[in-house]
Amino acid sequence: AQTPVKVTVTGAAGQIGYALLFRIASGQLLGADVPVTLSLLEIPQAVKAAEGTAMELDDCAFPLLSGIEVTDDPNVAFNGANVALLVGARPRSKGMERGDLLQANGGIFGPQGKAINDNAADDIRVLVVGNPANTNALIAQQHAPDVPAERFTAMTRLDHNRALSQLAAKLQVPVTEIKKMTIWGNHSATQYPDLFHAEVGGKIAAELVDETWLRDTFIPTVAKRGAAIIEARGASSAASAANAAIDHVFDWVNGTAWTSAAIPSDGSYGVPEGLISSFPVASRDGKWEIIQGLEIDAFSRERIDATVRELEEERSAVRELGLI
Ligand code: NAX
């Protein structure tokens, strides 16, 4: 039998954790023939709740789930980990400045990066979901010098899926008709969902919608969808975020011709090297590759530059705080 893949989930007792763990255990993260062991990392106050979730996982008797551990020690949680989903983060509370937020998250993602460096399996793949996701991924990566830099990624797949859904509704086509969607930059309100390379039935999506809708409805609706969900549900996106995390890792491991993921920049498209920024990517042989050769017009250039500028500012801020 195949050796189980160890998947570590941080923030396991949170709402995304609850939506994520059962799908991982049922085989949706890696494939229906891949056994998994789960490691649930939480802060001490939430270990008991995570143990409750572990009991429910037991009660599903998932054929692919070969073990579960619950811990508050990152060195235990990441020991031998093959996939790490870093979901737990410090949310912004009222009156919190950006510096305080980055500082608080540096205190989480720095030590977790080091624990990954010291304990994870050689093939470790890391997806950061906890916000500010791109910069948290950068912090973790910078504390893991022995892990190849490209194994640290951040999630923009939820934004990507939101963009597919909005465009499909507008054009009254199934989402499967839409190809080559791209989210550029930061997982934040500055992100740029790009319809100039997206295709619907072989036609460029931007040519099938009017410019006003693209600029004044589509882009802000995708970028602010998280806030709209909070407004409607009274809680932030959870099942859709878990779904996107599943999509990201499944495609990373199993391959895809085109999606969006925040990965370390190699300087492509004028994005400064090292920033963890969302790009159009393919996955081949278990590695993300930035799709090259796209023409970027002035409209897109301005928006890519703005979101990348925000990432540079976040990087400067965490440098000044001594977090990387
Ligand atoms: P919850 O507050 O429900 O859960 C977070 C959990 O993390 C809590 O159980 C907490 O105890 C735990 N935690 C905190 N510090 C920890 C640490 N050092 N080690 C281990 N666990 C720790 O939040 P939830 O709704 O699950 O969201 C989690 C994160 O995802 C947030 O940062 C949120 O902003 C982010 N999101 C990111 C999205 C994306 O597209 N990249 C979309 C959804 C979501 O908003």
Automatic annotation (TrEMBL):
EC category: oxidoreductase
Keyword field: NAD, Oxidoreductase, Tricarboxylic acid cycle
Domain Lactate/malate dehydrogenase C-terminal: 156-316
Enzyme Commission number, as recorded: 1.1.1.37
Residues where NAD(+) binds: 11-17, 105, 112, 129-131
PROSITE patterns linked to this entry: MDH
Residue ranges of every copy of the Lactate/malate dehydrogenase N-terminal domain listed in the record: 5-147
Substrates-to-products reaction catalysed: (S)-malate + NAD(+) = oxaloacetate + NADH + H(+)
Listed transmembrane segments: none
Origin: domain of life: Bacteria
Gene3D superfamilies membership: Lactate dehydrogenase/glycoside hydrolase, family 4, C-terminal (3.90.110.10), NAD(P)-binding Rossmann-like Domain (3.40.50.720)
Binding site for substrate: 92, 98, 131, 162
Pfam families xref list: Ldh_1_C (PF02866), Ldh_1_N (PF00056)
Active site positions: 187 (proton acceptor)
PANTHER family for the chain: MALATE DEHYDROGENASE
Biological role stated in the UniProt entry: Catalyzes the reversible oxidation of malate to oxaloacetate.
HAMAP family, A to Z: Malate_dehydrog_2
Family of the protein in this entry: Belongs to the LDH/MDH superfamily. MDH type 2 family.
Name of the protein described by the UniProt record: Malate dehydrogenase
